[in-house]
Amino acid sequence: MINITRINHSAIASRAKMAEMKHFYEGVLGVTTVKRDIPEKLDDLIPGFWMQFPNGQVHVIGCDDSGAERAVMPELAGKRGDPMGPHTAFYVEDIEATQQHLEANDIEYFRMEGFIFTADPTGNTVEFQQDPEYQSR
User: Fold this and answer.
1) Domain of 83: which CATH number?
2) What's the start-to-end Cα distance of the chain, in Å?
3) Mean pLDDT of 34-58
């Protein structure tokens, strides 16, 4: 069993109007935004912003159908679970145990650095990250 400890973030995709999206959430709704913590090679390639809430984040990700991010990260090609589109990310107690559980249940996934990506039966991307509150336990 995977021990999900809490939600990390949810991500919504925006294919256009990133400036308008940011103005709506930050300027109109008054949501706090924070610096994105993503690999440097993706920062310029994938526009977006992160909104911070007391119980987690919502990421707005600028994406298109060109596949440009896959040119920078070819390891994403053909993988189940697209981290560049809409997804939900969960913190887990033990990322290694999570990987073993997925393997034991024949669930296709891919691991990129400290992240595990898969998809639910209808294709919704699910991301797992090690919960830092459980890292040293």
Assistant:
1) 3.10.180.10
2) 18
3) 87
